[in-house]
Design a protein that fits this description.
mainly alpha, Serine Threonine Protein Phosphatase 5, Tetratricopeptide repeat, 76% helix
């Protein structure tokens, strides 16, 4: 009994082939999905090999079903089983079993151990870092770009590329292009923008001597997210830059004063040894304090959210002008500032308590301030310390009052040894 070209039901070869042609798109879609997942999960997978495996498995499936459909019965069917179906099944098991098993077990194993894709999704920049450390900046850049072709848009890779361009090649323009690629990802813009512009400000300040550009970069962060922690940190950096400029200007003035003194001494022929700079009088000290006070107020007006300037002004109000109420106002402003952390608020409220204790406020006022610390987070460490301080508040106030009270010694005759 030989093979016939008609099945028992009289189905023609053409109809069978049409069935398999109809199945082909679904099979191709499944294969594409599996291959795509593998390629995304690991850069080590060979796409051509995977495609070849799935193409071979499809041909085998077509041959197995076609042979079974036309086998009829008897010895022909037995021959088909041993010649076509059994070897075909073995080959399919070798090719497809790993994918099918992974598809069935992956939900369980991923839940217990994490998915394979998570392990291989992150590109390895170790070779690029090694090349960069060795001074092979061109090789490092090429390795980073190769990985970015496989993992486009990877934040770490783009930041490393920009760093090499700016720090190693001194090309801030190309680094900006790379940073703009990071900022083009709108979904993560809120997280990426502060990092990008802080790094750009670092380069502008430290590598390219562009303080105005650095200030502008930090202002972008402050204006983009005005009530965030990132904006607060940007404000602190801007304020620090202005304070540094002010200090540098003061140092320059001192140096110029020294030069004038030296020149005047040489003219008068009075330089007999080391130049003697007149000691600052008490009046000079007062003038210096007034200048520092005025400069601090100007900085606070220019940068009202600067933590450093507010704290410095509060210290001047306490120690220089003896105005504790105004010092408390500075800390109250910081406590209410948007983006302030719990740790910062606790520290500032404790500073207010310190001022109240030392300036003669009542125990109830200091206790109310400590209660505000507790209200921020009743379960926090700051609340625990505030409760402990409340218990010893009376002792703390008495000690402060005793320290501020002048010591009056009563004179007695027996102390002088007189009879």
């Amino acid at each position: 009994m030989g093979l016939s070209f008609e099945t028992g039901e009289g189905v023609s070869v053409t109809r069978v082939l049409l069935v398999f042609l109809a199945i082909a798109p679904f099979y191709a879609a499944i294969a594409w999905y599996v291959i795509g997942r593998k390629l995304r999960a690991s850069a080590r997978n060979d796409g051509q090999t995977l495609i070849a495996k799935w193409a071979i498995s499809y041909v085998i499936v077509v041959l197995m079903f076609t042979a079974a459909a036309y086998a009829g019965g008897g010895f022909a069917l037995i021959g088909v089983v041993f010649v076509v179906l059994l070897p075909g099944s073995i080959i399919l098991a070798i090719i497809l079993a790993p994918y099918i098993a992974n598809l069935i077990t992956s939900p369980i194993t991923n839940a217990m151990e994490g998915s394979e894709g998570e392990h291989w999704e992150k590109p390895a920049y170790g070779p690029a870092i090694t090349s960069r450390n060795r001074g092979d900046y061109k090789g490092a850049l090429e390795r980073v770009e190769e990985l970015l072709e496989i993992h486009p848009g990877d934040f770490e890779g783009l930041m490393m590329k920009a760093s090499i361009q700016a720090e190693d090649f001194g090309d801030l323009g190309e680094a900006r292009v790379t940073l703009n690629e990071i900022l083009s990802e709108k979904k993560r813009l809120k997280y990426n923008l502060p990092v990008v512009y802080n790094k750009l400000a670092d380069w502008q300040m430290n590598l390219f001597d562009d303080p105005e550009g650095a200030r502008h970069s930090l202002e972008v962060i402050r204006n983009a997210y005005p009530e965030s922690k990132a904006a607060q940190l940007a404000e602190q950096r801007i304020s620090s830059m202005d304070s540094y400029d002010e200090t540098s200007s003061a140092a320059t003035d001192i140096d110029e004063t020294y030069q004038r003194l030296a020149a005047q001494s040489a003219i008068n022929d009075q330089l007999k040894g080391p130049l003697e700079i007149p000691a600052a009088s008490e009046e000079d000290s007062v003038i210096a304090n007034e200048m520092a006070f005025a400069q601090c107020i100007n900085r606070v007006e220019e940068h009202p959210d600067s933590i450093v300037n507010r704290e410095e002004l509060a210290a001047l109000y306490v120690n220089h002008t003896n105005e504790p109420d105004l010092a408390v106002q500075q800390y109250e402003y910081l406590v209410a500032m948007p983006g302030a952390l719990e740790k910062q608020q606790v520290a500032w409220l404790n500073k207010i308590t310190d001022i109240q204790v030392k300036s003669g406020a009542t125990q109830e006022e200091a206790k109310a301030t400590l209660q505000r610390v507790i209200d921020i987070n009743p379960d926090g460490a700051g609340a625990t310390r505030a409760q402990s301080r409340m218990m010893h508040l009376a002792i703390e106030i008495r000690a402060a009052n005793k320290k501020n009270t002048p010591l009056n010694l009563e004179r007695r005759d027996e102390d002088l040894g007189l009879m």
